Amino acid sequence: MFKMITCRQASHLLSERQDRPLGWGERASLRLHLALCAPCVRAAEQIEFLRRAMARYVGRDPGPGQGPPD
User: Fold this and answer.
1) In this structure, how many other beta carbons lie within 10 angstroms of the beta carbon of residue 40?
2) Which of 29, 31, 42, 63 has its CA 20 to 30 A from that of 8?
C-alpha cells in the first residue's frame, strides 16, 4: 500500500535520492505524489538541473539519462 505524502516529505525524498537509493516504498510514494503535484515535479526538475550543472562544473557530467532513478 502506498502512503500519500506531503509536499514537504516529497521534497525531502527528492533530496535524499541524490545521496542514497530510495526504498521501493519511498519510490512508490514519491512517484504517486509527483503524478498528482505539478509544483513538486517542477522542484524535481530544478534539483536535477542543479545536479547536472554541478557535475559539469566539476567535470563529472554523467550525460543525459544517467541521473538518479525515479
Assistant:
1) 22
2) 63
